[in-house]
Amino acid sequence: MYLPKLIPFGMLLFQEHDTNKSANDLVRRAPDAVPRGYIIEHCTVPGVVALTFDDGPYTFTNHVLDLLDQYNAKATFFINGDNWSRHIDRKSTPWPETLRRMVDSGHQIGSHTWSHADLTAADSATRRKEMFLLEKALIKVLGRYPTYFRPPYATCSPQCLAEVEQMGYHVINFDVDPKDYLHNQPWTVDEAMRRFSQAVDAGQPSSSFLVLSHDVQEQTAKTLTPFMLQKIHERGYRAVTVGECLGDPPENWYQFSSPWETGTYLNRRFANSNRRRIIVIEQPGLHGLWYNDMLFIQPIPPYLFSTAFWDYIYEADLDLAKTLAGFMRSYCLLIRHEADFRLATGPSLNLIPRLPDDSGSEPEITFERFVDFMAQVERLDDAHVSPRYAYGFIRLSKLNSLSFLFFGRFAYFQVHRQLSTYVASFMAPVVTLFVVLSSVLSCMQVALAAQSTTAVSLSPAFAVVSNTFAIVVSIVAAVGIGLVVLLVVWVEMRNLVIFSLSLFRRPIF
Ligand SMILES: [Zn+2]
């Protein structure tokens, strides 16, 4: 069987990085053309105007889109999820269609937080939530979420900057502010137009401008936007997106969610860390499994970066070689962006080793080198890795419940099962009900027994009620037990189907 040669792995890490060679699917983002960690206020490409519209989508947004089409102009929309408009991801609202139109027309969408929160004043948990909620909504509508972010109130403290950088965002402000939100009446919008003209008229042909405005303002949509577009046209500038005005190609404007589950890769798990935890383990068998809120990850052992090791293992033990190749491939799911890589190499996880070179010092594995390295692993298809790694992350309880079928063991890895926790959650009220019913039943039986042995006289109606009640309780009990059995069968069958399907499906990167 043909096996792609994995051997140059180790060598690759020490070679000079060749940018032309690193074009691959693993990381959809090119090496950062745009810096992170500080607030960007100016375009870098000459002769362009980047119009930006904040706080939408809203009623006037479609009119702004019409005008942009008319002038064949591109712009950037910094979106809120819950501000002037609400439920931007809900089908019953016009907003999903508006958002899709923006992307389809070649405009750029950026984040402006979920609810227009002041991220300088907010605490870390609020910052994460504000960014994450909008990401979730945009994933639902567009299948992706932005890498560009404009802080509400134009303020992002050093702590805020560090945190949004770790989430993978560029922070964008502006160098032209027409103050359209202050001059938003038909009789005051002239002032916003004057401020825009003043800035643009003072420019050279090689100048560029990053302009703030708000498509939620009626006068901005109806009066200021056509004025700005006409002015840009007259002065010979091009109206472009923020990404283009910074020389960043469109594939870098968004991050993509994994099809396996929202937030499969490392950085997302941290952004959402109140729900998911990475557990670093030294048990290869548990690598890539998750259980409740924990994802088990085995760090990459240093010898997997050794050329000699791969040479040896392919000769000595093909099965083991395929297992290790699969293990390495699973890291393609974990590390997809530079921010993931920084976390993986950081002191809290330390998933990727530093390697001693000939001089004994420890050279840095840069992100670019890691991408080159992993690009080879990613090309391995399922035939070249062990079946264990033919699927992405898998829930441990699913694997356990099917372990007997596939491995002939009662559990893949014994833990308290999530299903039992689930059953326990509704068993308490069911048991309580049965206790109450059987107590009542006992009382009735005692009363009936007493009637037959003493002179106490009970109404015939009571005897009828008692008998009926006994029958009803029996039926309820039978149905209840039957339902529990059906539930267990259904859950297990569903697991079997999901697990079987996952065996035939390649991880999609
Ligand atoms: Zn705003």
TrEMBL record:
Q: Kindly list the organism's lineage.
A: Eukaryota, Fungi, Dikarya, Ascomycota, Pezizomycotina
Name the source's superkingdom. Eukaryota
Coiled-coil positions are none
- Protein name in UniProt: NodB homology domain-containing protein
Any one Gene Ontology biological process term?
A: carbohydrate metabolic process
Species source reads Cercophora scortea
Recorded GO MF terms: hydrolase activity, acting on carbon-nitrogen (but not peptide) bonds; metal ion binding
Q: Which UniProt keywords apply?
A: Carbohydrate metabolism, Cobalt, Hydrolase, Membrane, Metal-binding, Signal, Transmembrane, Transmembrane helix
Say if the entry is tagged with keyword Signal.
yes
The coenzyme or cofactor needed here is: Co(2+)
